[in-house]
Amino acid sequence: MAIRPTIRTDLNRSAILAQLGANGPASRAELARVLAVSPALMTQLVKDLIADGLVIELEQAPSSGGRPARMLGLATSSGRAIGVKVVADHVAFVEVGIDGRVLRSASEPFDASSSTYLAELIARISDFIADGTGATLLGVGVGVPGTVDLPGDGIVDAPQLGWTGVELGRALRRALDLPVIVENNVNALAVAERLFGLGRAHDNFLVVTIGTGVGAGIVVDGSVLRAASGGAGEIGHIPISDDGPRCSCGNDGCLEAHIGEAALVARGRELGVIAARGVITELHAAAESGDERAIGIFRDAGRLLGRTLAGVVHTIDPALVVVLGEGTLSWRHWSHGFEPAFRAHLLRHRRSLPVEVETWQDESWAQGAAALVLATPFDSAGASGDQGRLIRARLVEQAGRS
C-alpha cells in the first residue's frame, strides 16, 4: 500500500522557508524550537530542503562552548505568490513574498451573481498580476466561502456566491497559464496561521471566523482537516433550531442563519436599532454608543456561538482557538455572551482553553489564500496534485538562478 506524505510534513517544510524568510538565518535548533517540532524531524526536513536547493548552510554561529551551530538561510528570497479572496460583492488581492509578508494589496468590486462573473474575475486577477513586482510568480491561491473538492482541481460549491459545481480552478489555470490552488477561505486562513501566526506553536488548533458567514478551519496533528469532500469545518451549518430562519444553504435554523451578518442586521432592523436599509457598521456603532438593544444582539450571538463551539471543542480537542473575521470588530460585545456560555458548556478540565481574537484586516483572507501557494510545493502527492508539482518546480528553478 502506498503511503501518502502527510500535510503536516508539507506545512513544516513551508514553515521553515517562511521563518527563514521573515527572520533571517537560524540554526536547526532555533527552528525546531520556534516551529515546535522535534530536533530529529527538523534535521530530516532541513536535509530535504538542502537537497532540493531551497535552503543553504551558512557560516557557523558563535559558540560559548560545545560544537558551534550551522546557520541556515534561504537559497532564494524572490519567489512570490498571489492571493485572492472572493466574496459576493468584491474581490481582495495580495502579493506576498516567500516569507508571507504582504508586498502590495488591492480590492475591486465584483458581482458573483453576474452572468459574466467568471470573465470578470479572470480580468481582475490578470490586472493585479500585471502590476506585480516582476519577481518569479509561484502561483495563485484563491479562497472562496464554500466547499472545494480538491485544492488542485478547484470545483466550488458556494451558496453565499450562488455557485454550484463551478470549475473555477480549471478556468483560472487556462486563462492565467499559472498554477492555481483553490480552497475554502477558512481553511486557507488555517494554513496561514500554521505558517505565520499563532498556530506555529501548536499542532492542534481551531480557527473560527465570524462575519458574513460562520466557519472553521481545523488543524489536527499539524494537518488542515478537509475530510471526505473538502467540507470539514462548516460549523455555520450546524442546526441550532428546528424552526429557525432560512439559511443561505437552503436549510432552516443553521448557526449562520442565527448569527451571521445578515441575521444580526435583520434583528437590528426588527428592533428599530438601525433603519430599514441599515448595515452592520451602523449596528456596531449603536453598540459602541451604548444602545442596550444593539449590545444585546451581539451578546445573544456570542452566547449561541459559545455553546456551539463548546461542542466542537469536545469533538476535536484543540489546544487553541483563534477567532478571526469581519465580525471581530464588535468582539467586545460578542464576548459578553460568548465567554460565560463557552466556559460553562466545556468539560471542567477544558475550561481554561485559550481563545485568541486577532485584529482583523480584509486582506487577511487574501493572505491566507496566498499561503496556500507557499504550502503546496511539498504536497506533490496530496490534494494539490499537479498544481503542487508545478509550484515546486517554479520554486526550485528560482532557487537555481540565485
From TrEMBL:
Which InterPro entries does this entry report, sorted A to Z? ATPase_NBD, HTH_MarR-typ, ROK, WH-like_DNA-bd_sf, WH_DNA-bd_sf
Molecular function (GO) terms listed? kinase activity
Instruction: Enumerate the SUPFAM superfamilies for this protein.
Output: Actin-like ATPase domain, Winged helix' DNA-binding domain
**Which residue ranges does the record assign to the HTH marR-type domain?**
13-56
- A single Pfam family it belongs to is ROK
- Keywords in alphabetical order, please: Kinase, Transferase
The similarity annotation says: Belongs to the ROK (NagC/XylR) family.
This chain belongs to which protein, by name?
NBD/HSP70 family sugar kinase
Natural source organism: Agromyces ramosus
